Amino acid sequence: MGSSLRIVNGRVFDPANGVNGAVRDVCIQDGRIVADVPADAKKIDARGQVVMPGGVDIHCHIAGPKVNLARKVQPEDHRLDVHPRTRFTRSGTGGTVPSTFATGYRYATLGYTSAMEAAVTPLGARHTLEELHDTPVIDKGFFVLMGNNVLLYRLLQEGRREEFRQALAWWISVTKAYAPKLVNPGADEMWKGHRNANITALDQKIDSFDLTPRRVIAAFIEAANDLGLPHPVHIHCNNLGHSGNFETTLETMRVAEGRRAHITHIQFHSYGSVAGKSRDNPTSRARDISEFVNTHPNISADVGAVMFGRSTSMTADAPLAYMLRQFSHGKWVNADTEHESGCGIIPFTYQDRNYTNALQWAIGLELFLLSQDPWRMVFSTDHPNGGSFMSYPRLIRLLMDREFRKEQMAKVNQRALEHSGLRDCQQREYSLYEIAIITRAGPARLLGLAQKGHLGPGADADVTIYDEDDDKERMFSTPRYVIKDGELIIEDHEFRADHEGRIIHVAPDYDPDIERVIEPFFEEFYTIRFANYPVADRYIRHGQVVPTAGQSAPAGR
Ligand SMILES: [Zn+2]
To answer: Does the predicted model carry a pTM greater than 0.90?
Structure first.
């Protein structure tokens, strides 16, 4: 028993299957794409419209303790941006950090059907899953913060590589996460032990350990590859936001030595410095970073573009939050989570006349325009850090429409443009095919989500249909239809149904004996008992386990 649907006459953009704007039918049966459906199936006539897989956000911050903290410190956003209920959907609040319900609905109104929360402490997993459960329509999962974990550092320091790998698998498995995340590895020990200190180089000694960020990064890359995780280690490099940090980023990518690694919000890690000038004068080194990524197929990245206007900086990088706070002069929160991570929240406004902000904006665009492989340099604003996900349509227009881009460039700080290479890559315009890669097919492939980001038989029936429009911002702001798991959620730009998306996670196998290594550490240092730490299965009411390379795919969902 199920519903069937045939979408006819639309121009289909399905890069994973090599379909570039051909007019062809897309058929849906019981929540999946199929080759054909019976003649009496319901039809959508998509003449004059563009059909794409639902959008997949590889990196955003939408749920969990730090997101909730960001909501709490900005009550004015709730008042100014009310998201009213409709006959089918629930109410919420917006701003740069929308409430759970508004997050799901607003992603859907842009044609996005999947999103990954990018930084959750293991201790925050339960809270995060509860919020993700309350985030409607989209499928979602989270990356778990492992790069400053004290017990993993101890194992690594003592050369206990097999136990390190087993412990990593255990942590990912018991928190029901999707991938391991590193944030400024090594920095938390400095931050905890010294006044406002940070780690600044890959070969610097990590406080209290005989370790360096280089060794930590290499160990995680190796372990994640050995575990066969569908997405490799997701790395927020050291020195985020600092002038001259591009060298750290290049070094970090070299550590991978041909193994898979994903560098996130790489825009924030592509800064040079004006020779001989103070550290506060960043320049663009997007060209060096692009060249490296272009020529190293094991490396992937998301851009983390900056968009002008309000944002909220929220990060597990505590020293960075402290630095940003010196620029914003507004509200600010810094917090630590036991042995697991730090965190900081700062409401922030990117201004087009500001040198640094305009440079960051330009570097994001440069990285897109210099990329030779859209499958490996994918779309993100690190929502809400570089800008809200609601700014995605505008960013798409900046990539697709060089006249619009020129107009915008005329409005920003011109000295910043001189220190970027944006004027040198003015000719390029992204095609709809390339947009479909960077916002859907690419992120799905990098995440290892075989059923997402494409419209071939067997794929999840997550489909977005846009009216063709020369104004690409308008086009991508208001899809005519959004279909999730085969269900028509948005029709003629209006919600027609509510929907509960799935929690996507992995469950890598581990040797149960590793618990004998982990448990004593808990009893000694944690506020929570070991037995209460793993997240119970009931926290995933509607979920999907994505198999590792060594596990066989489960039957059905
Ligand atoms: Zn992020």
So the answer is: yes
